[in-house]
């Protein structure tokens, strides 16, 4: 079975500072990897996805993530945090296009003015 | 916009009563999912469907049943609601026609069982 681990359930950064949200996965086959963002009282929105085309993936709102097979990681970064980035972030993994997704437990990002 | 509508968006009910949540999609996607979201647990899969009348269990299926009689509708039923089923429920569809098949989510249904 696959699993996703998000290190740090709460992360706080100052406005303008680097954002780094960590995600490690376990999978016996090359995975599809995703980051989602959830704003209060809303559903999840796709930030970016890795589909084996390129290891550095750029998403919306200035976020990017790098797939590192040797480390089984897919960490999310943004060079400069903005107040509007405050939200819950979820990493997810899937092995194929048909069946199940597996989600991490989420990381709540707080941006301090 | 993936055209997903969940209803009701908010519901308060009492222990032991049946509850049905509806997920409606407008784009004929084959795969539909029901998740529950709870603090500290992230999203956990309840049931999913891969076609009309084709469903399968997820990791937290006990106490829940589903039905899919039409492509566009996926119903989640709590036969006898319990307080442990107080949660936010999300429906999702998996994008068809792409090689990644990312999920698109509805806005959620907040259920409180007293």
- What's the number of extended β-strand segments of chain A? 12
The number of helical elements of chain A comes to: 0
Helix- and strand-based class of chain A?
mainly beta
Tell me about the largest β-sheet of chain B. 7 strands, mixed
What does this entry show, briefly?
The complex is a heterodimer of chains A (113) and B (114). With 113 residues, chain A is mostly beta strands. Chain A is 0% helix and 51% strand.
Description of the structure:
The complex is a heterodimer of chains A (113) and B (114). Chain A is mainly β and 113 residues long. In chain A, strands 2, 5, 6, 10, 11 and 12 form a 6-stranded mixed β-sheet that branches. In chain A, strands 3-9-8-7 form a 4-stranded antiparallel β-sheet, with no helix packed on it. In chain A, strands 1-4 form a two-stranded antiparallel ribbon. In chain A, a hairpin with a 5-residue loop joins strand 5 (32-38) and strand 6. Helices cover 0% and strands 51% of the residues of chain A. By secondary structure, chain B is mainly β. Chain B has strands at residues 4-7, 10-13, 19-25, 32-38, 42-51, 54-57, 64-70, 73-78, 87-94, 103-105, 109-113. The chains are: A mainly beta (113), B mainly beta (114).
